[in-house]
Structures
1.
Amino acid sequence: MNNPELMASIAAAIGDPARSKILLALMGGRALTPTELSLEAEVAPSTTSAHLAKLHKADLVTVVRQGRHRYVQISNEQVAELVERLGGLSGPVPIKTASGPKDPAMRTARVCYDHLAGELAVRLFESLVRQHWLELKTDGIAITDRGRPILEGFGIDVAALERSRRLTCRQCLDWSERRHHLAGSLGAALLDGILSKRWAERDLVGRTVRFSAKGEKQLKRDFRIP
Amino acid sequence: MNNPELMASIAAAIGDPARSKILLALMGGRALTPTELSLEAEVAPSTTSAHLAKLHKADLVTVVRQGRHRYVQISNEQVAELVERLGGLSGPVPIKTASGPKDPAMRTARVCYDHLAGELAVRLFESLVRQHWLELKTDGIAITDRGRPILEGFGIDVAALERSRRLTCRQCLDWSERRHHLAGSLGAALLDGILSKRWAERDLVGRTVRFSAKGEKQLKRDFRIP
DNA sequence: CTCATACTTCGCTTATTGTCGAAGTATGAA
DNA sequence: TTCATACTTCGACAATAAGCGAAGTATGAG
């Protein structure tokens, strides 16, 4: 059964504005340094250090040292999903950023931990199912025999994904669209492929993924997205 | 986009052992009084009052007055799902209870907010899909034309469920089985039906649902569960 | 080797939180 | 009307937490 003490400690670890900012910043999927996170959280580096210690103790983040740099990441996708759920419950608010209408861009395509989220991601997922390249089952989502060559044609080593212990396919609730997009190792591989083919690029900061006109066209063609 | 302040306040509201115990107690789906919750949380009534005020402020619970009694419930199923997710992340631990092997009973059938969870619930859901009475789609789970008479035969007013604003069908991750069971208004209606037919009964305290031998047989027969 | 950078630890201050018993308020039974 | 019950509010106490600047440690550039 659930352990209220442990549950409370996890929630308490998240339950501070600075730590929430840190977790949300990490939801972009990038490993960030304490200095970067200090800027995101708008607290002093020493305070950030203490916060990271708490997040680490609660197993919400991992830290890897590389020379004098520390790289912080969200521990695993269960944590990512929890943060996303908490985010969804707290509802979307407008982004206060310097340039242009960013929120629409975020709705269209963004990184959710390690996979693509947003309207395009939702439609991609729907198309994969509609084309019977993925099959929805009660115990998960399966890559079909029809879908395998399509995904391999896109450059994904499907066999390797399936050999991995990690879930290949998982639905992730897209808070901006209130439908699902594809998470799991296949979701991550699709994003990697999109980025490596330069159909889209990430913003330098933040989570937005911007498709070029050509890239979006290519995505829609290859995956039969209306 | 996500609001870190609001996200932090929701998580902080959960992030105390006493409040976690309160929320987990409420996950049984029953409205409980502050006195009952005080016993569950193992704190003084005045402390419970303060905790309930915090949970209410964070919109995690609702309180209804009935004479001198207050009845507390979880606000909505998004909150229930969040609590379930947090519970899943913190992992199951053995129940320390007076009588018998409760944990196995909890794995078999229990209440998850307002619907059935556990091994039987998972198999019920799988069967509903396998029999094509429910259909998995990327935008949700639909009751099929084939399934409609089956559910109505069980005593469920399917049209009324579908007219409701609430989601009829939703997958809920069963932490004990690591597969999904059925939540949403259909999930709740199924549980109501099972209880009203006396195929199963709830324990007086806690979340366990106990099927009689006859009731389990009936469930398996009517819903083609192997 | 020296200096700069990244990051943590320490000590301190301030604020917040959780707990309780006692008192108070509202409701219901007798 | 009186007494019991359910629950909240108040005041007090103790513990915890978040914040910072300064100092310390480790790494890397020049």
Note: Residues 33-35, 45-46, 48-50, 53, 67-70 of chain B lie near DNA strand D (CB under 10 Å from a C1').
2.
Amino acid sequence: MNNTNQSGLAAERRDAIRAMLRERHVARVAELAEGAGVSEATVRRDLAELESRGFIRRVHGGAVSLEDAVREAPFDDKAELAAAEKRRIAEAALQRIKPGDAIFLDGGSTVLALARLLADRDRLTIVTNSLRVAALLAGGGPDMIVVGGEFRRISQTFVGSLTRHAIEPLHVDTAFMGTIGLTAAHGMTTTDPREALTKELIMRNASQVVLLADSSKVGTVSFVAFGSLRDVDVLITDKGIGKTEENRIRKRGVEVVKQ
Amino acid sequence: MNNTNQSGLAAERRDAIRAMLRERHVARVAELAEGAGVSEATVRRDLAELESRGFIRRVHGGAVSLEDAVREAPFDDKAELAAAEKRRIAEAALQRIKPGDAIFLDGGSTVLALARLLADRDRLTIVTNSLRVAALLAGGGPDMIVVGGEFRRISQTFVGSLTRHAIEPLHVDTAFMGTIGLTAAHGMTTTDPREALTKELIMRNASQVVLLADSSKVGTVSFVAFGSLRDVDVLITDKGIGKTEENRIRKRGVEVVKQ
DNA sequence: TTGAATCTGAGCAAAGTTAATCATTATCGT
DNA sequence: ACGATAATGATTAACTTTGCTCAGATTCAA
């Protein structure tokens, strides 16, 4: 990190801070101060400004980028592997879709992997509250209905009362849901109450609910619970899931598919 | 930076300032003053002028270029000109937005050019039925509400009854509308009935309606009429508009701004 | 749970930037 | 060449930005 800023133009410095954060994803205030060649106080003010504009998120001691790094190829084995896992899960989910179906796709990277596989289908109606899914299918493919609402930048989804009203009259054959946390004890959990409300309403309006969650989600608990495991028909995950947790989830009436 | 400008022609100096900014992307007032061989006061005046025309953005201490530095040479004069025209129109529209406003942006390339200029604003709420606008502002910037609905691929917008229901409870200060055709006789026209219905409802829910239409639209008629010229407060267009049509539109009570 | 270390935001003074005003110089049409 | 008009540069008061200090909040480890 050595973008030492010579000209001292505030706007330029903020761009540099954004760039540093995009690249490293997280950084401490002290690092950013050194990188930009200004005091920590100034970096804090910049971060407050950038946060209010939605580019970054403040955390104690530093900040996290909310922008997608260009994902240069420094060969992140772990992310690589996770992406392959997600695609395997998405492929298994594909089996549950019949021609002519109306399906719901919510936010989250695993569900996004499924959307990618559907991009050249027709005879299918997709309902989604995810901007990423919408953008992915904007070029062509199935019919698409987007439920709008307030835009939540962190998850790139639409939430709030407008979203709920938009979902209300819609009924889908199958809802493909993502989750942040999943345990038999706490059920499905996510980070945002508005997100949780949206997910609940979707599950209520679907004949069948398929939960897509790689094994890293299983056993973790997030902030807000949504729905109930009893409403989930199928969980599609990978072989990394623990036997104990798997059995407990099965006992809640969920069919578990390990891909 | 050593473009010291001797000839003393103001227009030439402004071109030089634009060029310096294109090249370096940002520069301080002092640097530009030295490069142009004039006082800082003059540079500030030039920068104000260039900003009002949409070529640059002023920042504390200097300025940022809004023009693409890369300017590859295939030199598509026509597209070049059209894009510049659109940006000039968008820049004029910017004047009609106050901090804290809620505004509507509909589909269409001129309105998209306006969205681009708003990407780093905060203190602003943007409502849109355009996926392109949504994607453009997804990274950061103003608060955003997207009115969803059936996705119409040709225009990359949301239309239909879901969209109408989503718009109904929303009221904005200013609606910035695009159109396919515009004549005094037929009013505003577009290609799709559902699109037309959406536009009408938006105009009804806005305190002020600003129509953005480059002069190529003026005098052409499309398939479905929407709204009435009486509901339009301001038309922002370019100098290519014909005198006759301009006067007829003015007689309908529309303020015409030629950029 | 407690304490040490760290982080944060608020207030403040110094430095830098801006916009407004005004006197001076350049340009233009006749 | 002349006066009218516009552009420029200097001056200054108002505003922004910045770095510093300090009291209170937060984190982490014992």
Note: The longest strand of chain A covers residues 206-212.
